[in-house]
């Protein structure tokens, strides 16, 4: 994090120098440059600054994964977290109802269920009608 | 997303309440046609439809909550009230069967020999398998609490292990009870003793199967990162239901197995 701030600060200073030499230095440009510098400071999480190579994570987060006894078992159940992708998928503003938003499999399952519902209800009514006849026991 | 000036969840129309209602119709009519005509088509159809409805409805709830974020604090509060009220209704359901048991056993009819257990009935020894069947739900109460604390602390591996143990203990209880049912020296048809015994313990066994399934279903969302340390209502509901099932067993054991022998 400190390295990113340091590098982006250097880039900003260089840019400011370039603009001053070319006489394009205006108040607005300074503000934008300073603001973008501040933006870099405030929203530059580890390794996500554009053009800046990601730094390796701090040691404190690396140590739990390095226990030999846990390495094998961790791989089994610690599958990738797909929640952000699924959140994007189900929050797409495409007007499709939630129970069909998952794609083709949703549609197939819905149609099968509805088919069984309508068919089953009809079959049930016929069976009850037949059962209600006095001769049929 | 549409803008709304409140934190509540106005659900989109969905077909699952209709399919669930029709499945209930098919299952009940299917039972009747099975008893009278010995055909299981309707019953099988109804059960299939019920399973499809349950899968798609609860999948929909997961999509609305985990993926769309509709379960705000007031919504969660409402869900908690709902689960508590449902469990309370189940408590009253069991109170009916305990009422029937105590009505028949506190003043045994002359037809039973004026005593309880009735003449001719050999009750199960409460200190054999039924005692083991008491230790099992108590242990599973401990494991489900361990799972809850693990989830709250964000410890994924212990949460997975303890939840799996809870499910295994539930399956163990069901297996033991099934074996007891097979080996029992009396049946459902053996007068009021057999009737109260098997109906009360039978419905309890059904609730154990439901609770075990609920906990098993919680394993899947857990491995897919659905639960967070402070928002995991699906698990909370399963844990409450499981504790309720364990407490009902304790009452059953003390009343029917111990005092009733």
TrEMBL record, chain A:
<keyword id="KW-0809">Transit peptide</keyword>
<dbReference type="GO" id="GO:0097250">
    <property type="term" value="P:mitochondrial respirasome assembly"/>
</dbReference>
<comment type="pathway">
    <text>Energy metabolism; oxidative phosphorylation.</text>
</comment>
<dbReference type="GO" id="GO:0005743">
    <property type="term" value="C:mitochondrial inner membrane"/>
</dbReference>
<keyword id="KW-0812">Transmembrane</keyword>
<dbReference type="InterPro" id="IPR036539">
    <property type="entry name" value="Cyt_c_oxidase_su7a_sf"/>
</dbReference>
<keyword id="KW-0472">Membrane</keyword>
<keyword id="KW-0496">Mitochondrion</keyword>
<dbReference type="GO" id="GO:0002082">
    <property type="term" value="P:regulation of oxidative phosphorylation"/>
</dbReference>
<feature type="transmembrane region" description="Helical">
    <location>
        <begin position="108"/>
        <end position="132"/>
    </location>
</feature>
<keyword id="KW-0999">Mitochondrion inner membrane</keyword>
<dbReference type="GO" id="GO:0006123">
    <property type="term" value="P:mitochondrial electron transport, cytochrome c to oxygen"/>
</dbReference>
<dbReference type="InterPro" id="IPR003177">
    <property type="entry name" value="Cytc_oxidase_su7a_met"/>
</dbReference>
<protein>
    <recommendedName>
        <fullName>Cytochrome c oxidase subunit 7A2 like</fullName>
    </recommendedName>
</protein>
<dbReference type="Pfam" id="PF02238">
    <property type="entry name" value="COX7a"/>
</dbReference>
<feature type="transmembrane region" description="Helical">
    <location>
        <begin position="6"/>
        <end position="25"/>
    </location>
</feature>
<comment type="similarity">
    <text>Belongs to the cytochrome c oxidase VIIa family.</text>
</comment>
<keyword id="KW-1133">Transmembrane helix</keyword>
<dbReference type="InterPro" id="IPR039297">
    <property type="entry name" value="COX7a"/>
</dbReference>
<dbReference type="GO" id="GO:0045277">
    <property type="term" value="C:respiratory chain complex IV"/>
</dbReference>
TrEMBL record, chain B:
<keyword id="KW-0496">Mitochondrion</keyword>
<keyword id="KW-0999">Mitochondrion inner membrane</keyword>
<keyword id="KW-1133">Transmembrane helix</keyword>
<dbReference type="InterPro" id="IPR035973">
    <property type="entry name" value="Cyt_c_oxidase_su3-like_sf"/>
</dbReference>
<keyword id="KW-1278">Translocase</keyword>
<keyword id="KW-0812">Transmembrane</keyword>
<feature type="domain" description="Heme-copper oxidase subunit III family profile">
    <location>
        <begin position="4"/>
        <end position="261"/>
    </location>
</feature>
<dbReference type="GO" id="GO:0004129">
    <property type="term" value="F:cytochrome-c oxidase activity"/>
</dbReference>
<comment type="similarity">
    <text>Belongs to the cytochrome c oxidase subunit 3 family.</text>
</comment>
<dbReference type="GO" id="GO:0006123">
    <property type="term" value="P:mitochondrial electron transport, cytochrome c to oxygen"/>
</dbReference>
<dbReference type="InterPro" id="IPR013833">
    <property type="entry name" value="Cyt_c_oxidase_su3_a-hlx"/>
</dbReference>
<protein>
    <recommendedName>
        <fullName>Cytochrome c oxidase subunit 3</fullName>
    </recommendedName>
</protein>
<feature type="transmembrane region" description="Helical">
    <location>
        <begin position="159"/>
        <end position="179"/>
    </location>
</feature>
<feature type="transmembrane region" description="Helical">
    <location>
        <begin position="191"/>
        <end position="220"/>
    </location>
</feature>
<comment type="function">
    <text>Component of the cytochrome c oxidase, the last enzyme in the mitochondrial electron transport chain which drives oxidative phosphorylation. The respiratory chain contains 3 multisubunit complexes succinate dehydrogenase (complex II, CII), ubiquinol-cytochrome c oxidoreductase (cytochrome b-c1 complex, complex III, CIII) and cytochrome c oxidase (complex IV, CIV), that cooperate to transfer electrons derived from NADH and succinate to molecular oxygen, creating an electrochemical gradient over the inner membrane that drives transmembrane transport and the ATP synthase.</text>
</comment>
<comment type="subunit">
    <text>Component of the cytochrome c oxidase (complex IV, CIV), a multisubunit enzyme composed of 14 subunits. The complex is composed of a catalytic core of 3 subunits MT-CO1, MT-CO2 and MT-CO3, encoded in the mitochondrial DNA, and 11 supernumerary subunits COX4I, COX5A, COX5B, COX6A, COX6B, COX6C, COX7A, COX7B, COX7C, COX8 and NDUFA4, which are encoded in the nuclear genome.</text>
</comment>
<dbReference type="Pfam" id="PF00510">
    <property type="entry name" value="COX3"/>
</dbReference>
<feature type="transmembrane region" description="Helical">
    <location>
        <begin position="16"/>
        <end position="37"/>
    </location>
</feature>
<dbReference type="InterPro" id="IPR024791">
    <property type="entry name" value="Cyt_c/ubiquinol_Oxase_su3"/>
</dbReference>
<feature type="transmembrane region" description="Helical">
    <location>
        <begin position="43"/>
        <end position="62"/>
    </location>
</feature>
<dbReference type="InterPro" id="IPR000298">
    <property type="entry name" value="Cyt_c_oxidase-like_su3"/>
</dbReference>
<keyword id="KW-0472">Membrane</keyword>
